Amino acid sequence: MSDESRPSPAETPATTSAETSAETSAAGRSPARTAAVIPAAGRGVRLGPGAPKALRALGGTPMLIHAVRAMAASRAVSLVVVVAPPDGAGEVKSLLDAHALPERTDFVVVPGGETRQESVRLGLDALPPEYGIVLVHDAARPLVPVDTVDAVIDAVREGAPAVVPAVPLADTVKQVEPAAAPGEPEPVVATPERARLRAVQTPQGFDRATLVRAHGTVTDDVTDDASMVEQLGLAVVVVPGHEEAFKVTRPLDLVLAEAVLARRRLNDGF
Ligand SMILES: Nc1ccn([C@@H]2O[C@H](COP(=O)(O)OP(=O)(O)OP(=O)(O)O)[C@@H](O)[C@H]2O)c(=O)n1
Ligand SMILES: C[C@](O)(CO)[C@H](O)COP(=O)(O)O
């Protein structure tokens, strides 16, 4: 069931690694409730012409539904807020109703904004007060495994104000200056030490008050939520990401996502 008006369920009993964190047992009380905000309001310009990216099919199912299922797969997540394309909230609600989703998870749909940052803020505004931990997960990362989701939640429960999953880089990275004129080469100015670089994924996890403060304070256009927390001078910690949590950005990414999904379905025997 996916209904904006449905009341939040009680926290699901502890069964996963995310449910048995040090915070829960040491304090002897329930952990803060965890909600996931899924910004899904982008056009997907780099993927090419078509429907908004989150609504495009992957293995016959909209990418957004995969992303919603990936968040709801964590037993710690009891609410998913989907930030829909500005004129597509009704369509997204219908999609959620039409697909099988865990009963123990509530779903809310809100219209998004012009930028990812604005969309995330609109999602945060829709959170009921009892949710103390927030995940922000790109609809464009439909295949993130549940172990990665739970690792992020565990790290927030253990006290980190902000947590990012990340993977080492395969390529060497160069810092360049802009070309002097269109068509001119870009001069290289530095080669950062690759061993210290990470490619950052989602879901990124936050203590809710920290993320709300970051969104209320930082006005720069940034590409992820954790960098807003960095700008507040607070610690952001890294947990291992997963190669299957890649972002579907360009057409080749969709080919890869289809292949990963086909392999999973073969392994699962359906
Ligand atoms: N105004 C926006 C822009 C982006 N997003 C979401 O932010 C996530 C990551 O953004 P990206 O992959 O860049 O998606 P798009 O903005 O759709 O891609 P493009 O830049 O190619 O148009 C996506 O799930 C996207 O739907 C959003 O909710 N609201
Ligand atoms: C949040 C993010 O997925 C972390 O890698 C990324 O920064 C989003 O960037 P995009 O250009 O908005 O896709």
From TrEMBL:
Family: Belongs to the IspD/TarI cytidylyltransferase family. IspD subfamily.
Record pathway: Isoprenoid biosynthesis; isopentenyl diphosphate biosynthesis via DXP pathway; isopentenyl diphosphate from 1-deoxy-D-xylulose 5-phosphate: step 2/6
Catalytic activity: 2-C-methyl-D-erythritol 4-phosphate + CTP + H(+) = 4-CDP-2-C-methyl-D-erythritol + diphosphate
Annotated stretches, region: Disordered: 1-33
MF terms in GO: 2-C-methyl-D-erythritol 4-phosphate cytidylyltransferase activity
Keywords per UniProt: Isoprene biosynthesis, Nucleotidyltransferase, Transferase
Pfam family, one: IspD
Compositional bias per record (Low complexity), positions renumbered to this chain: 7-27
Protein name in UniProt: 2-C-methyl-D-erythritol 4-phosphate cytidylyltransferase
Entry function: Catalyzes the formation of 4-diphosphocytidyl-2-C-methyl-D-erythritol from CTP and 2-C-methyl-D-erythritol 4-phosphate (MEP).
PROSITE patterns recorded: ISPD
InterPro entries in alphabetical order: IspD, IspD/TarI, IspD/TarI_cytidylyltransf_bact, ISPD_synthase_CS, Nucleotide-diphossugar_trans
Sites annotated Transition state stabilizer: R46, K53
Source superkingdom: Bacteria
Lineage: Bacteria, Bacillati, Actinomycetota, Actinomycetes, Kitasatosporales
This enzyme's EC code(s): 2.7.7.60
CDD domains documented for this protein: CDP-ME_synthetase (cd02516)
Site positions per UniProt: Positions MEP for the nucleophilic attack: R194, K247
Origin species: Streptomyces anthocyanicus
